[in-house]
Amino acid sequence: MKTSVTSRSLRVLGLIGAASLTVGLAGCAGGGGDAAADDTIRVAYQKTASFTAMDELMKKAKDEYEAANEGKTVELVPIEAEQDQYFTKLALMNGSPDTAPDVIYEDTFQIRSDAAAGYLQPIDDFIADWDGWSLYDDGAKQAGLGDDGKTYGISLGTDTRGLYFNKDIFEAAGLPTDWAPTSWDDILEAARTIKASNPDVIPFNVYASKSLGEATSMQGFEMLLYGTGDELMDTDTNKWVTGSQGFRDALGLYQTLADEGLGPDPAEALDAGWGSKVSTELIPQGKLAIALDGSWLPSNWISGDNEWPEWQETMGFAAMPTKDAGGFTSMSGGWTLAMGANASDPQAAFDFIAQALTPENALMYHQEAGQIAVRSDVASSQEYLDFNPSFEFFSSLVPYTHFRPATPDYSQISSNIPVATEAVFTGQATPEEAQSQYDSALVGIVGEENTQAG
Length: 454
Description:
Blueprint lengths: L6 H10 L16 H6 L1 E8 L5 H16 L4 E8 L2 H12 L8 E5 H9 L7 H4 L10 H6 L9 E3 L5 E6 H6 L11 H14 L4 E4 L8 H12 L7 E2 L4 E4 L2 H15 L6 H4 L4 H9 L5 E7 L2 H6 L8 H4 E4 L1 E2 L6 E5 L2 E5 L6 H11 L2 H11 L6 H4 L2 H6 L2 H6 L5 E3 L6 H5 L2 H9 L5 H16 L4 E3 L1
């Protein structure tokens, strides 16, 4: 079937052409004008050098859906951008009914705010008649809820975060290859030992830059904050916390890494592509000793352009300890497939979502994206369990995990965290100064009556 560029697609490209979009378009559906648009399902999702699993899933679902639904066309809009830039470009698309997607790859922490903003529509009537819904665990179902209690997204899986370490680098530095740190001091001592042993290796990476947005907030800062016993929002009072010691301690670790040269060069770490570089270059090339990162990294190494057969022998895993040897901590999130508020044919949009989440497709995505399964048929599949040896370890972190505050204003508040971490990591502010700036921004967003002193 020959493809052509439709007027809808030109509007998308004109709006976010800088995203280097690869748009799957179809011009041979019958009819023209609005009728042709109604027969087209536009699907927007993220694609990066280190994250191609969604692109593979969407291409497969497109082929399957179009084969089963004559006259229907799926227009794929892969947005090639890191996480924060993806959110920005997606918001631009959602800003106009002419460019808004019908199906959206949606982070769970964005669902409440995007539903409240009118970008999403509830799918309760559709999942009520969908056999697949009963396979999802309760936590996954909760992740797709809006403030009104309606369901807006279906989970693609969840994740945890922990420590990766290079056993070859550790052995050369005289450190144990079964390393199991029990405090932040243990991590820092290992990083100092590695720096002394091999100054050409980055001892420890914790994401710190504004350009990485939520990756910095969640993989970096919040992994530290929740390890102090403090939190962003008090779950008992539902008030946001200001001035906490844990917040300063977390920023203090960034300061220590910078002051002692235990982290990456800020000039490199502030680049928007740093996350991809860490997973596809620095770790496989033995240039990074310890990384605080997500459970999905090994999926990059199993197959594809970034295949690294030696990863199982080279890499070790460790739970992230709390600050003072009080246990362990992790963070969990996940992504969904959601339906855009402007979907011209909601039933067709949901049918595409259901096609993308057949048992076969869900298993493929869980394997390739390194996701912790949230549906029973995948979680119990031996094929899933055998595919990635890291699944067992990262699943074991679930008892220690935390979730970001599920409030519509979280994304706005969260955007101020990388401002604080970058300021400290680059020496532009002390932890106390950066915390004060964060607190001021927080009060400006939620109002002083919705905050409490930590």
